[in-house]
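Re: weekly structure request thread

Next one in the queue (274 aa):
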Amino acid sequence: MKIIKASGEQELYSRQKLCNSLKATGAPKALVDRVCLVVEKEIRPGMTTQEIFLRTSRYLKKENPVLAAKYSLKQGIMQLGPSGFLFEQYVGAILREYGYTIKTNQMMKGKSRVFHEIDILASTKDTHYIIEAKYHNKRGVKTDVQVAMYMFARLLDIESYQKKREKEKHRAWLVTNTKFTRSAIRYALHKNIQLTGWKYPKKESLENLIEAKSLYPVTVLPSVNRYAKEQFAKHNLYFAKDLINLTSKQFQKLFAIRQKIAENIQKEAIELCE
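Done, posted below.
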């Protein structure tokens, strides 16, 4: 039986692939088997992977809301849109948790006398990174080689100007919420561009960085609607774990969120992160 991927391509349905995606959340085998069996009965030829995802997420939410939130991580990151601004802030917050000094939305002059808008400047003692946070709000879209080439060209222009004024050297770093094309990976390896995306690199992919420190975005919590998301962003709260220690009064005073909704959000955040 063939199903349709987000890219529009057809592929054979794989029960193992569905089960593996559930296992990745830490779900016990009995729950994985149960959800897969229920979902599999509803799958029809020509069904999209998005439809399968939504059905799986719905059944998993009934069984275990915490695991459903983890399963919806990719979707939750996409909900940081519709523009790329919140994704840029979220990536900056993640890197700060890993010890980087962060500046966002910076302007840097190049040798061409053109000023380049930089999403994120990140630095450690030894290395300074110019980061492009490439956000996509559609499933199936990959970050391609043109993005990597454009970024490297900007790096060369900036470096040519900055090296006359500063001793530190910069390195390009491309972060995205989707997968990279093979060409983008080959080009980045050749030009020493650091890549962080969905399932790449294998042990330090975006989802690995998030899960290792429980840096789940607030958008994975079922009770967080668009209004709540916008209110949290205004106060620079991007992680679900940031909401755990807030009181009901703070939810009402800072965000104008009703007590019952606030209690649900906090409960979901605690269960997810602790």
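The chain has twelve helices and seven strands. The first helix runs from residue 15 to 23.
Next request, please.
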